[in-house]
Amino acid sequence: MALDLASLLGRKNPPLIGLDISSFDIKLVELSEGSNKAFRLERYASEPLPKGAVLDGNIENIEQVSDTIRKLLKKSGTSAKNVALAMPASAVITKKIFLPMTLSDQALEVQVESEASQYIPFSMDEVSLDFCVIGPAANQEDVEVMLAASRKEKVEDRVAVAEAAGLQSKVMDIESYAARAAIQRLIEKQANEGRDQIYAMFQIGAKRTYIYIMLNGEVVYEREQQFGGSQLTQDIVRNYGLSQEEAEVKKKNGDLPDSYEMELLEPFLENAALEVTRAIQFFFTSTPYTRVDQIFLTGGCAVVTGLVDIVAERTKISTAVVSPFKGMELASGVSEKALRNDAPAYTVACGLALRRFG
Questions:
Q1: pLDDT of 246-294, one tens digit each?
Q2: Backbone phi, then psi, for 78, in 5-degree steps?
Q3: Who has the most CB within 10 Å: 5, 32, 266, 327?
């Protein structure tokens, strides 16, 4: 299965569910079309993975991962069989290139493969490659083309676990692009109310933070940093002798010893705020821009108690935790109360589920 960038740029996709396979769990989101063209959240659920089943984005045990997907499908109650999956950004090479507008479709494909070979440090027969024409370049003589490539075996592993669980893989996306798709509709809606506002999104996952900065609907800056919520979870595991799963549950529920806040939480929050502040400063020094008007936090780590407040305090920028489901209708089986705390962790899965719609 090739990487599919078509869904990023508006081509219609068949009905499907979004599955976000991380190192610690798998998350599922299913959306439908509600009233007045609104989206409707039909269901969401997650299931923990056995330790070591997925390491650094690589599937190490296909049987364990496919078994976890089967459990998740049963838990969620979905009957959908089509699925959108995603690769970690670190496993995908993406590149924007410019090619003559006069090329035929066939000539364009040949030229893209030729260009791709310059950027990919593997033999082309070991690679899954896809591309999509974004639109005319500024000079009006070329077209801007986005290409994406990943090791074929890594793509095939994800397809294999889905198929072993009885699903059909329809889209292979990139995690960071899926997260962007989920949040971009919210930013664009807000941007319509205030032109020329600069919005910075920090998707803070378990091990990585993806940063996107947008102006008038365009991404003007993006970056990945090696920082995430698993650092806090591992500290809890070590300090209190808990399993990974126990630590995640107790962190989420606030069910930890009195010493937790001072010994573990406060240092983690300081470190997180420092990472955000550094990222903003790097944006200023590496681009012509000198301000950010709003910071949005999403990802599983976004709801850690005190994070939004310390980021706002350290950066002096208005900061909010954002749900990818904001403005969506909720099916009767979805708890609005539970969703408030869960939602930011489902940003990638939501972005994948949105591939159902053109």
A1: 888 888 877 888 899 999 999 999 999 999 999 999 999 999 999 999 9
A2: -75, 150
A3: 5
Q: pLDDT tens digits, residue range 9-40?
A: 444 445 789 999 998 899 999 999 888 778 99
Is the Cβ–Cβ distance between 144 and 136 less than 8 Å?
yes
91 touches 150 (CB < 8 A): yes
pTM of the model: 0.88
Neighbours of 259 (CB within 10 A): 11
CA 322 to centroid of chain Cα atoms: 14
Residues 6+ apart with CB under 8 A from 240: 247, 256, 257
The first and second tokens of residue 308, run together, are 């939004």
Q: What are the CA-CA distances from residue 166 to residues 43, 46, 73, 106, 255 (Å)?
A: 19, 18, 10, 35, 37
Q: What is the DSSP string of 12-24?
A: ---S-EEEEE-SS
Q: Which residues contact 177 (CB under 8 A, 6 or more apart)?
A: 8, 86, 89, 351
